[in-house]
Design a protein that fits this description.
686 residues; alpha+beta; 5-stranded antiparallel sheet; 3-stranded antiparallel sheet; 16 helices; 14 strands; 50% helix; 17% strand
Length: 686
């Protein structure tokens, strides 16, 4: 049956209308056509990676004569081994891989919650060490790492316990009876709960992901991505999202029927015989299609096994993008795939292998340890003694120095050693990894301090560039997980942050756009920061406030990869000595008493000021009275002396007489008026 007939057979057997009610759903033939069209570029890329992995694993085929060496030195693997730890340790040395910072001030609380949830999921829900090691090693070995970011929901029965309470009258704090709910028992029930509700990170096999070859090196521009994975009927039913499972032909659609898929198992000949566990290959198509028939594409996902659609729906993820993050180890212009160090040092490894095999052949073909004896040096009896290791006698006239010869390994030509050293140095220059091929010594990086510093600076910059690309990939993964948290986490889900702290996460606070930063650095950068902080402590430690010294010490502990010590330093609160605390209280009481005493003295002084002011006014009045009396006496004395006083006394006497006369006249007139009034009253009465 031709490929066209197979596609037509799929069109007949597969009907997407059983899964969706779209106006224009894609057919299986359409999706398989994209798969076949992209396979050409995909196969070219997989061929490249297969070659790089052969170089890495030393799988070069050597056609040698019998008895000659076929050794292939693993120069690329040696460089990669030094690279693995340098790239993975920055991610694994901290508990908080993600550090979220808000885009605006109002988002601060939500950003902190996102950071707590994200770090909790990475540390507790995902095997962080396994994922980071696979992430880094895939990038170093293959040049490109593809991470599939998904979400796993699993429900199952679980026994749930609830308290039985009743209202009882109990004695209150004031002795009065009050009603209160009291636990009187416990009941259990079987309920369906979410056993798993978490993100899933999968480092994909390069053989099993086919990308749109027209994306021009940017996966965000890709129109589709096809991911194949192994599954079984039991797993598909347990997932709950798949349909038409009874239509799958598990005999025809077995794992062996999909040669393009790379099987994860080491033993490809083993297969399960029962239907529930028998493995089949399912393919997920993530892409865009005009599902409404209005010439506007929408994101969707379709999954099929053989010729049967088992899932089709719109893209369920909130960002509506392909659920893949692609990271390039060494990027290539306008190419979606990167390249590893093996692509750079393949020729160096071949030259090192050829020279090494030549050296081994020279040494291996020598009869080392064999001893030659001249035929006439010993007679039969002494020859037997020589072979037994006993004392013997050699024939006269024979020089024993010439009669006996011990075979040894030949000297290795210096040119061969120089070629090996030159190729190793060239490989290290290409990769930026100093693998200490000459041994770990002070001369490994250079003969002078300037040379060592230059080598370290160049190496750290090369390494930091790779780390930036790896960290950017983790940042994209973090953004996808944050958007999924906003969509799939329950409102009341409790996330355990520490042994003592529990935070209830509200999904309404998880959907914002946040700037995510990664706490990563190279060992050289950490050492430089730590040295600067240590120098600061040495020069300013005696003058810095205790709080600032505590902050610097906490940062030093973090840079030295001691997070527990850093946490204890940051949270440390010095406990005062009881005697010192009592002394401080007494000193404070003494100061308060002194202040009260001084305040009382001030008030007393205020009273004294008033009294003194009043006394001053009295004395001033007395002084004025005395001054007035003295002035009056002085004036009288002067007037008596000058005669003015007598004239004044005469005038005063006359004035007094006149006043007396006026008073008497007033009294006389008043008496007359009174008599007239009395007479008038009598006349009227008569």
């Amino acid at each position: 049956m031709s490929e066209t007939d197979e596609i037509q057979k799929d069109v007949v057997e597969t009907d997407a209308s059983t899964l969706v009610d779209w106006e224009n759903p894609p057919s299986l033939a359409d999706l398989k056509q994209d798969l076949e069209s992209a396979n050409v570029a995909h196969n070219s890329h997989t061929t490249e990676i297969d070659g790089w992995l052969r170089v890495l694993n030393g799988e070069q085929v050597i056609k040698a004569k019998p008895g000659r060496s076929t050794l292939v030195p693993k120069l690329a693997r040696k460089q990669a081994e030094w690279r693995y730890a340098a790239l993975s340790e920055p991610f694994l040395s901290t508990d908080d891989l993600y550090n979220t910072s808000p885009a605006t001030f109002e988002d601060k609380d939500s950003a902190e919650q996102n950071g707590l949830v994200l770090n909790y999921q990475i540390n507790c829900k995902i095997d962080k060490v396994t994922f980071i090691d696979s992430y880094v090693r895939t990038a170093v070995d293959e040049g490109t790492v593809l991470v599939r970011v998904g979400w796993e929901i699993e429900e199952g029965p679980r026994k749930v316990y609830k308290d039985i309470t009743e209202v009882q009258v109990v004695q209150g704090p004031d002795g009065q009876p009050v009603e209160q709910e009291v636990k009187v028992g416990e009941e259990s029930s079987i309920e369906t709960v979410k056993i798993k509700n978490q993100p899933v990170l999968t480092v994909c096999d390069y053989n099993n992901v086919i990308l749109d070859p027209t994306c021009e090196g940017d996966i965000d521009k890709a129109s589709f991505a096809i991911y194949s994975f192994e599954t079984s009927l039991s797993e598909l039913k347990k997932d709950g999202r798949y349909k038409n499972l009874d239509d799958i032909n598990f005999e025809q659609d077995s794992v062996l029927a999909e040669p393009d898929h790379n099987i994860n198992s080491d033993d490809t000949s083993f297969t399960f015989k029962d239907k529930a566990r028998k493995k089949v290959i399912a393919r997920e198509y993530w892409g865009y299609w005009d599902i409404d028939g209005n010439d506007v594409v929408k994101p969707f996902i379709a999954t099929w096994v053989g010729s049967t659609f088992i899932r089709m729906e719109e893209n369920p993820y909130p960002d509506k993008k392909l659920p893949f993050v692609l990271i390039q180890y060494l990027p290539r212009r306008r190419n979606v795939y990167g390249e590893p160090d093996s692509a750079l040092i393949e020729d160096n490894q071949k030259i090192v292998g050829a020279v090494t095999r030549g050296i081994i052949d020279v040494i291996g073909r020598s009869a080392n340890g064999q001893q030659a004896i001249r035929k006439d040096a010993l007679d039969v009896t002494n020859a037997r003694k020589f072979e037994r290791g006993d004392d013997f006698k050699f024939n006269p006239g024979v020089d024993p120095k010439q009669a006996f010869h011990m075979q040894t390994y030949p000297e290795i030509p210096r040119s061969a050693i120089e070629v090996l050293q030159m190729q190793n140095n060239d490989a290290e220059a290409l990769t930026g990894v100093k693998a200490f091929t000459n041994g770990i010594s002070g001369q490994a990086l250079g003969a002078t301090a300037t040379g060592i510093r230059s080598a370290l600076d160049a190496t750290s910059k090369r390494e930091l560039g790779i780390l930036r690309r790896l960290s950017n990939g983790l940042t994209q993964i973090g953004r996808k997980i944050i958007s999924m948290n906003a969509e799939f986490l329950d409102d009341t889900e409790i996330i355990r942050i520490t042994n003592e702290e529990f935070v209830s996460i509200n999904r309404n606070d998880l959907g914002g756009k946040y700037d995510i930063k990664l706490n990563i650095s190279t060992a050289e950068a950490d050492e430089q920061k730590a040295s600067e902080l240590a120098f600061m402590m040495q020069t300013m430690g005696n003058t810095l406030p205790p709080d600032m010294s505590q902050m610097i010490l906490a940062d030093l502990a973090k840079l030295r990869k001691m997070p527990d010590l850093a946490k204890r330093i940051a949270d440390y609160q010095p406990q005062p000595d009881p005697l010192a605390e009592q002394r401080a209280q007494l000193e404070l009481a003494l100061l308060q008493a002194r202040v009260a005493n001084e305040t009382a003295k001030g008030r007393e002084n205020e009273v004294d000021v008033g009294l003194k002011t009043a006394k001053t006014a009295t004395e001033q009045a007395k002084a004025r009275d005395l001054n007035s009396g003295a002035d009056s006496k002085d004036l009288t004395f002067v007037e008596q002396e000058s005669g003015v006083q007598n004239a004044r006394n005469v005038q005063a006497g006359e004035d007094k007489h006149e006043q007396d006369m006026e008073k008497k006249e007033h009294d006389r007139l008043t008496a007359l008026d009174k008599e007239a009034f009395t007479a008038l009253n009598k006349g009227q009465q008569g």
